[in-house]
Amino acid sequence: MSGPIGVGIVGAGQSGTKLAAQYLAAQRREKINLLKVCDTSIAALGALLIARETSSITQERLTTDVHDILNNPDIAIVHIATPSQTHYDLSKMALEMGKNVLVENPMTLSSHEAYHLVDVAKTGGLLIEVNHAVRFNRALQVASEMLNRGELGKLFHVKVHWTDQTSSPDADIIFNLGHNPVDILNLLLGAWPKDVSGVEKAYRNSGTHNDVAYIFAEYPNGIFAHIKLSWLNPRNVREVTIVGSEGSLIVDCLTQRLVQHHLDTTYEIPVTPGYSLVASQIERFAGRVARGDCTVDLTGPRTVETLEAISRSLSEKKISAVANVNYEEEILKLTQDAETNISQDLSAENKAP
Predict the structure, then answer these.
(1) pLDDT (tens digit, 9 = 90+) per residue, 279-299?
(2) Which of 58, 66, 226, 280 to pair with 191, CA 20 to 30 A apart?
(3) What is the pTM of this model?
């Protein structure tokens, strides 16, 4: 595939507007060509025309019909930026129409659905990936490199403090805020948790959704992790603390600042932030599509698996094991389920008068 890759965005809400701005920036660098933006809300599409960052979008590129994207042969990538409960259906539609899919986190609300999307992509020779732009945070990347070199000695504990001042009345704090901390822990530790537990509480919106959650996770080699999620903080906090036998690191993900503590000494480690985390993710994904790299990426399903285990622990009020299913076994189960359903349908037809 040569030349800029055609892209369509589904979803022009708050995150969709930011995405459109990043895609337009990538378009100026001749990496991609943003051909269509879809949303069922005319107001959301209109906002793109008047926002300074997206005012270069012409009205002809806006649509309320997702099929204008799915049926466009010039579009190779569809970016799904809609509410989480719609991710599975829209991603599946796009894959079945021969499109590569970049979908916002969480990938789906069910790991079974997430694995199914991976299988649909693999069968069609396509690529599906979750937007984990946080992995392009340079401070986190440098911290990960330091851990790989063993500079903190034996790892003991990692704490992730992740808050947001905005929330939706019907949002689930685990799936809404928890995906980035889970993703970060996988980046730093190179593993997924064995067991998780936690507590959550509704304060401001009692009876509708929880505002605060504390999550505890045990990783291989006895490493313990703690995640604090909150919609009540007066300011946004995105901080990671890593503790080892030879010192500790504190990562401020908002400023991409990295501080190391060793014995009685504290010093900042120089980090040159990237120009945009989202743009880095976009251009990396477009590069993979251009190269025909359809390597299976299980980060999305594994993250959803972990979030499911956390939710199960909260509802059952006990430690919950993370499934960490074997990908091939999961795909076999999907195939067997489909064959069973077909067999039952045929049997019902044969018995019909």
Answers:
(1) 999 999 999 999 999 999 999
(2) 280
(3) 0.89
